[in-house]
Design goal:
By secondary structure, this protein is α/β, with parallel strands linked by helices. 49% of the residues lie in helices and 19% in strands.
Length: 247
């Protein structure tokens, strides 16, 4: 049996049982292998843009004797995937800009899936903003800590309209994009630790900046850090605002 890392195990947990899964950027192919071995999914398509990782995935699939259940495809994002071919599209372990690029280039295919499981490594606010603007509703979020690093992930579904944001004040949306609306709503313990750590780091940066001689660059950087601190501190009030909105 394949044993997944804490991060990838949390990602795999978000997949709806019984789904046919496309794992985009599959690398070693461990997630689809584990999901099939667990009996959680009937079959999967492991996809990667590079031949090397795809060959490694194929080797692991063969070693586990799962060739009848997991297919490999060379693909730039979801390019080699037909609309409606799978139920769940998994995009994990890559930068947020690349996640947005994959979604944007394969928007029709992605909107035909029942769910997308996303685990961007950066640009979280931009990813969540993209999802909001392109009518992908976040229905589940999690964050885990592994080797001292924080990994947020989310399950989203395509919708015709997303009423979630109708009930939130405008000043609440940016923190939700930054930190995750459901992570905030549910008081995720890993997020709480992240907020505390980030707050300390930002204040340390501010103290160091205050020691520097005044200049236009230093003044601008101080302003940026103060804005980040304000955003961090506002996250603690979001839970109450979301609850008061009845969401």
């Amino acid at each position: 049996m394949i044993k997944l890392s804490k991060r990838m195990s949390a990602v795999a947990t978000m997949v709806t049982p019984g789904s046919i899964v496309a794992d985009v950027g599959t690398d070693h192919g461990y997630v689809p292998i584990a999901l099939v071995q667990q009996g959680k999914i009937p079959r999967a398509i492991a996809m990667d843009i590079n031949k090397g990782p795809l060959m490694r995935a194929q080797e692991h699939i063969s070693m586990c004797q799962l060739e009848d259940y997991i297919e490999t495809r060379l693909s730039d994002g979801v390019e080699a995937l037909e609309a409606g071919e799978v139920d769940s599209i998994l995009i994990a372990g890559m930068g947020g800009d690349l996640v947005i690029h994959i979604l944007n280039e394969g928007l029709d295919v992605c909107r035909q899936a029942k769910e997308l499981i996303l685990q961007p490594q950066s640009e979280l606010a931009r990813v969540r903003q993209y999802l909001r603007e392109h009518l992908f509703q976040i229905i589940d979020e999690d964050m885990v800590i592994e080797d001292g690093k924080y990994y947020p992930m989310m399950k989203v579904v395509p919708v015709d309209q997303d009423n979630f944001w109708r009930f939130l004040p405008e000043e609440t949306i940016l923190p939700c994009d930054m930190y995750g609306p459901l992570l905030l709503k549910n008081g995720n313990p890993s997020l709480r630790k992240y907020l505390v750590k980030q707050h300390k780091q930002l204040n340390m940066i501010l103290k160091e900046l205050e020691k520097q001689p005044d200049s236009e660059a230093i003044t601008l950087r101080k302003q940026q850090v103060l804005e980040e601190i304000s955003l961090n501190e506002s996250a603690y009030t979001i839970l109450g605002e979301i609850k008061n909105a009845g969401i």
